Q: What sequence folds into this?
């Protein structure tokens, strides 16, 4: 079942627990994410998927458990530290910086890979100018890569269409040069055609940019089509894990989650 | 989107007309126009004192207004750029002024330190540093103090920052008053309390000599140079990696930290830089008033500087300058020199200076009602305030993903 016994895991989360007050949102969940794989987390609403995401990216500190990235313990690190180590994410309910343009959003995404500090910015040394020019060029490149029309590059993020906002969010995440990309319900609000295109795009990301992708997804067609491995959460605990076909036929999953739909 | 209420239609048409005219003017003007106007303003700024006598009351007011504009620019970095509501900015005025008192007078009379000074200051007891060194010291001391105050404070959010900074401002003010009881050994104390550290050194520069209070022009050029320096730093920071990080944090902290922006460090930088400018201006004001007195450091001063930022337009660099000069002139020239006795002329028995805070309050209300984005609004803030973008409104519809082939929605 586990692909990563021989050290191929990019991120390993062991026995994660998260309690909010008395509520146990996540209870003893372990996930291995092998290098260059696409792994999905599925589960009914309130199963604790996003909580797991927030722990992996450092937004929540786990009550118990350990998270390792490339063998390095990152359990207690801050979100910005984890990002600079190569983890980027998107959000379920798009969180772009609305008063910034698409390009500026992507430039902010590159913050961790830039060096200009207070004095460098005030003096604007030649290397700072070069860095600024390079980051603008890179941002435009990334926006083109995710399929945004060039005519809206300099529009405010808040004024973009829903689909374009999703694209900008992915470009912003890619700007930090992640090894691991976490996508929180990327197909939410998309029609079947758009979802299919996104599925293709995720494969492209993995193969061209050598990314590893962890996905939270509701759309079973996307999940089954794209993931090598699926983890199923229910009420904060892991109830199944394995290749999509196996999970689809798991008795507990059908009972707890798929209901009569399967 | 463009839903017009009846009463607004006239205004909207007028605005559209104005915008058209402005665009037409922009087309006619050559590309160097903006730069040309800026250069002209700078030149006028530099030669302005020649239009007045060397100790004119107007130049005196201008010097004070400029020093407040410097403070306003400093606070604008904290409040405008980084979005941290600081109600205790007076703390940095105090520390800057005390930097002058400590390092530019005979207050620490057991010490004998003289660096780059001449005349009496070179032989007197105490610490006497050149005024430029004092400016640097004030900036450094305030930046360090800002970091120390900010470290516990900036982990808080929104209103709590305002409350804690207010408290720190009051603490520094109290320490200034009661510093007479803080003994540093040898009979020296930390501050002179309400008696004030007087007889501070007048700025001295080799080749120029000592400044004095009968010839105000050198003072004017010195504070103008400080203003230009602070302006330059403001512009550079706004258009930098750090400036973008501040906007990002202001808009959405969770998203910003997830993009690799360190929360506390980035906010601290804003706080420390803003503090440093407050300190520089504080040292200048101390020198110009020739005293560092604990009674100067009141909560009202923090509010005055904050009003400048708000009236000018939060986050707007030129707004901070205009707001600072405007309130500065009202405070130091219009009310005391020009209009002070106006009430008596219409038979009322009070002077305008005794109701000045009421006047500021009225102005603030006026601006908030008529032009909430400030006199010279900052582009992004304007968008946020006029509702051209609605950061929260979008969320509700996005939080509910449309169930499309979506078995997750089956609870």
A:
């Amino acid at each position: 079942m586990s692909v990563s016994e021989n050290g191929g895991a990019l991120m390993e989360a062991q026995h994660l627990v998260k309690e909010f007050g008395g509520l146990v949102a996540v209870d003893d969940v372990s996930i291995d994410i092998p290098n260059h794989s696409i792994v999905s987390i599925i589960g009914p609403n309130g199963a604790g998927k996003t909580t797991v995401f927030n722990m992996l990216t450092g937004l929540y500190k786990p009550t118990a458990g350990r998270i390792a990235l490339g063998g390095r313990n990152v359990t207690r690190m801050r979100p910005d530290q984890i990002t600079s180590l190569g983890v980027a994410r998107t959000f379920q309910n798009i969180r772009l910086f609305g008063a910034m343009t698409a390009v500026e959003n992507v430039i902010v995404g590159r913050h961790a890979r830039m060096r200009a500090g207070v004095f460098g910015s005030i003096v604007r040394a030649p290397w700072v100018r070069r860095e600024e020019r390079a980051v603008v060029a890179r941002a435009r490149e990334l926006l083109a890569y995710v399929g945004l029309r060039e005519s809206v590059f300099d529009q405010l993020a808040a004024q973009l269409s829903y689909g374009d906002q999703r694209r900008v969010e992915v470009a912003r995440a890619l700007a930090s040069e992640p090894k691991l990309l976490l996508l929180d319900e990327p197909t939410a609000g998309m029609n079947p055609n758009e979802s299919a295109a996104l599925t293709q795009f995720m494969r492209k990301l993995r193969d061209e940019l050598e990314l590893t992708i962890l996905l939270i997804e509701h759309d079973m067609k996307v999940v089954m089509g794209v993931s090598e491995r699926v983890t199923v959460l229910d009420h904060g605990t892991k109830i199944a894990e394995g290749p999509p076909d196996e999970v689809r036929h798991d008795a507990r999953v059908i009972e707890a989650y798929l209901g009569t739909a399967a | 989107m463009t839903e017009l209420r009846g009463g607004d239609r006239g205004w909207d048409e007028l605005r559209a007309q104005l915008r058209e005219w402005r665009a037409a003017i922009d087309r006619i003007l050559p590309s160097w126009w903006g730069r040309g106007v800026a250069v002209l303003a700078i030149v006028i700024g530099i030669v302005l004192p020649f239009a007045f006598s060397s100790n004119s009351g107007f130049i005196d007011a201008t010097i004070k207004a400029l020093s407040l504009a410097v403070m306003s620019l400093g606070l604008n970095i904290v409040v405008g750029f980084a979005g941290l509501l600081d109600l205790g900015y007076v703390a940095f005025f105090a520390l800057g002024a005390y930097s002058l008192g400590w390092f530019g007078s005979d207050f620490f009379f057991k010490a004998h330190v003289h660096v780059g000074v001449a005349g009496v200051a070179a032989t007197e007891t105490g610490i006497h540093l050149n005024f430029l060194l004092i400016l640097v010291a004030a900036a450094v001391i305030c930046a360090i103090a800002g970091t120390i105050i900010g470290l516990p404070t900036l982990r808080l959010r929104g209103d709590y920052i305002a409350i804690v900074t207010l408290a720190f401002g009051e603490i520094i003010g109290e320490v200034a008053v009661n510093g007479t009881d803080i003994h540093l050994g040898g009979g020296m104390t930390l501050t002179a309390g309400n008696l004030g550290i007087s007889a501070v050194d007048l700025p001295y520069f080799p080749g120029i000599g000592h400044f004095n209070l009968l010839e105000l022009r050198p003072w004017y050029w010195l504070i103008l140079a400080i203003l230009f320096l602070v302006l330059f730093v403001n512009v550079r920071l706004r258009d930098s990696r750090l400036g973008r990080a501040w906007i990002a944090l202001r808009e959405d902290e969770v998203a910003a930290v997830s993009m690799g922006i360190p929360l506390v460090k980035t906010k601290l930088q804003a706080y420390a830089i803003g503090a440093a400018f407050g300190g520089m201006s504080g040292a200048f004001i101390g020198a110009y008033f020739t005293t560092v007195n604990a009674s100067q450091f009141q909560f009202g001063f923090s509010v005055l500087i904050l009003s400048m930022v708000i009236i000018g337009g939060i986050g707007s660099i030129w707004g901070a300058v205009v707001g600072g000069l405007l309130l500065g002139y009202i405070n130091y020239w219009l009310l005391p020199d020009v209009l002070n006795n106006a009430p008596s002329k219409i038979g009322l028995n009070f002077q305008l200076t005794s109701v000045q805070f009421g006047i500021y309050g009225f102005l603030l209300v006026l601006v908030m009602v008529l032009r909430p984005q400030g006199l010279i609004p900052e582009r992004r803030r304007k968008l946020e305030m006029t509702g051209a973008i609605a950061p929260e409104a979008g969320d509700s519809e996005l939080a509910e993903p449309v169930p499309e082939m979506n078995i997750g929605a089956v609870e």
Remarks:
- Chain A touches chain B through 61 residues (CB under 8 Å).
- Confidence is low (pLDDT under 50) at residues 1-6 of chain A.
